Amino acid sequence: MSQALKSAVAIVLIAASGMFAQSPVARPAFEAFEVATIKPSAQDSRGRYIRMQSAHRFFAKDYSLKALVGAAYNLTPQAISGGPAWIESDRYDILAGTPGDVRPTLDEQMSMLRNLLADRFKLTFHREQKELSPYALVVAKGGPKLKESSAPPDALPELVSVVYPENGGGVG
Q1: DSSP E strand boundaries for the chain
Q2: Is the pLDDT of residue 169 over 50?
């Protein structure tokens, strides 16, 4: 085969391969869950987590409304105030379906969660400056009393029981 013919065949193959290539999956706008259920958590529920169970299933297990707000807005519990007492005591499970064929990022998941909380719990809020009590870890006057561990780095720590005199000498 001549060099010109080989070049022509290569060009045709390259051009044809573009016809069969898959186009990238379009990223949907993750504004809201397609469908969502919010139910009270079971009394014997163990463990609390938020995760994607698959590319299309968002699951939050055993969360109080206050903890859900904290997760959705990336806030610590101390930064959230107000609301009725049940926002800390009642716990919920959320199962929701996400739109499109791609898994939403964590930011997209939390954005959809914010919209769900506003819709289902009629959540409204405002931001304000809040003074929190800071803690500082400082070295005592006599210097640190820490000792270097003699245990190997991969050793498991020993379990220690602490006796609390105020509760009748019980172990905590």
Answers
A1: 35-40, 49-54, 57-64, 91-97, 163-164, 170-171
A2: no
